[in-house]
Design goal:
single chain, mainly beta, five-stranded antiparallel beta sheet, two-stranded antiparallel sheet, 1 helix
């Protein structure tokens, strides 16, 4: 399904470690900036809380809820910061931060 103009959905997958547990699935802070308009913002890609009422399948161990934001159209830069989220929650940091540059219609 196509998104509205000026809207971006940030998402992530599980860390690429051999053994993943729910403690490896930390929230991700995304800082973005629209280079065309100057608009800036921050959002969180949050992990899906573990469901302790039943056994978890391996592909359910580390899932995330997408974060949709209105960035406006133009060239957008984004930084995924796991360190900021880990400091707030007290989690360890099993992955590196990332960045991207992309055109938003």
């Amino acid at each position: 399904m196509a998104q509205a103009p000026g809207v971006v959905t940030f998402t992530t997958g599980p860390p690429s470690t051999i053994f993943i547990t729910w403690i490896d699935c930390i929230d991700v802070t995304v800082n973005w900036r629209n280079q065309t308009t100057g608009e800036i913002g921050t959002t969180e890609i949050r992990r899906v809380p573990p469901d302790y009422s039943r056994a978890q399948a391996p592909d359910e161990e580390c899932r995330y809820l997408p974060a949709t934001v209105s960035t406006g159209g133009g060239i957008v830069t984004a930084t995924a910061d796991v360190v900021a989220s880990a400091r707030r929650s007290g989690d360890h940091v099993p992955v590196s931060s990332g960045r991207g540059v992309f055109q938003v219609p």
